[in-house]
Amino acid sequence: MKRKEIFRQAQNYAFSYMDEVRERNVFPSEEALAGLKNFVEEFPVSTGDAAEIVELLHRYGSPATVAQTGGRFFGFVDGGVIPAGLAARLLADCWDQNCALYEMSPLASKLETICEGWLRDLLGLPGSTVAGFVTGSSLAILCGLAAGRYRIFARNNWDINKKGFYGAPRIRIVAGREAHSTVSKAVALLGFGLDTVEWVDTDAEGRMKASDVPELDEKTILILQAGNLCSGAFDPFAEICERAQRAGAWIHIDGAFGLWAAASGRLKHLTRGIERANSFSLDGHKTLNTPYENGIVLCTDEEALKAALHASGSFMGDGENRSGMFYTPEMSKRARSVDLWATLKYLGREGVDELVYGLHLRTVQFAEELRAEGFEILNDVVYNQVVVACEEDPVTLRTIKNIQRSGECWAGGAFWAGREVIRISVCSWMTNEDDISRSVRAFVQGREKARS
Ligand SMILES: *Cc1c(COP(=O)(O)O)cnc(C)c1O
């Protein structure tokens, strides 16, 4: 019973956090940051007191968190968390399941299979599509490209797992200049070498120019993007994928946050043509607002995905019961499918549509209110991102600092089309119309200060 007490204690702390998170500073105050020194100590010699440890986290850790669940954090592309998914995760954490193998967690195995089917259906992907549940898109991209690498080599009678790269036929990598840095990381990790990438120019919105895509062939991996990090723009899939498929290229779509547009009736047009791709990467923890570490790789070539990630030869498993490890690089891993499943089941098709389209509507509101206040909006607001600028770079840079210090909301900076910009991502289900107007006021005040 004593053991249960610390869980009640943690729960109480969590509840008070939830009650306060909407009103506290979005980025921690100086005082809260100074409190982090309380964690600095020599490694303890003797066993501690669990209740005290949890209390320490509450007292000094909690105030130094970034209020990402509060509705006014617009940095990077960080989603909030939907209660159904979070509660499911808390329960699953108590189960502490390892979902490497079916035998370790029949439940996790079943929920992975169910999520796989639902995602295929929700995103309109081919029936052969399978899913691997990983930490995030960084890893999902790596998995998708590894599957493509395996398949292209196999078609050329080259077993990459056994023979490696020495003497191997040449594979081409074609990607847009605006590809996410994790695409470069995956390309480098897989041994292709970044200097060999054929980078394709992008237009003013950061979309790959279809006319600039080089001649493709069956030894090419083409990497496209659903959702540009700054503008939220989508590559012209219909045009490019048709050509790429005819040429026999492997198409990977990095859709970390953008692929979810396919689940919204009113935004789906942005993803037209994706069904021709061979692999996809996306994040539950962004647009879908699941807890963190809910990355997903989707692949229409099950054999390639499994072979690429499990060189052991026994990768086929026993067929009937899914073992999660065969679809991911990791072996031991937590049962992420529980929180993903709970979020999907809670939202349903209509809820996902409402969530994704709602983020878009708030984004449009943000852009319109900022424009009315004399800010420049540099992108076409097609999804959940806004690229904003003040009259001059130095004012923009100071405005960003002021916004971040205000505690009212948080947005980051970027360099876009030769200018310093403020980058806004509306990615949390918590963000309502009031949050937007309140944040616009913080932008205006931040700029006033920056001008004086
Ligand atoms: C966030 C993001 C990634 C990386 O995803 P992680 O989940 O952070 O690993 C890759 N590509 C795009 C477009 C992203 O937005």
What would you note in describing this structure?
- With about 450 residues, the protein is of the alpha/beta class.
- The chain has a domain at about 85-345: Aspartate Aminotransferase, domain 2 (3-Layer(aba) Sandwich), CATH 3.40.640.
- Helix content is about 40%, strand content about 10%.
- It is built from 13 helices and eleven strands.
- The strands form two sheets. The protein has a seven-stranded mixed β-sheet with strand order 1-7-6-5-4-2-3, with helices on both faces.
- β10 and β11 (about 420-425) form a beta hairpin.
- α4 packs antiparallel against α11, α6 (about 135-155) crosses α8 and α6 crosses α10.
- The radius of gyration is 23 Å and the shape is globular.
CATH topology of the domain at 87-344: Aspartate Aminotransferase, domain 2
**At the fourth CATH level, what is the homologous superfamily of the domain at 87-344?**
Type I PLP-dependent aspartate aminotransferase-like (Major domain)
Overall shape: it is globular
- Please, what is the average pLDDT? 96
Query: What proportion of the residues form beta strands (DSSP E)?
Result: 5-15%
| Individual helix count | 13
Order of helix and strand elements from N to C terminus = HHHHHEHHEHEEHEEEHHEEHEEH
Query: For the largest beta sheet, what order do the strands appear in spatially?
Result: 1-7-6-5-4-2-3
What is the straight-line distance between the termini? 61 Å
Kindly list the characteristics that best describe this protein:
Aspartate Aminotransferase, domain 2; four-stranded antiparallel sheet; alpha/beta; seven-stranded mixed sheet; single chain; 452 residues
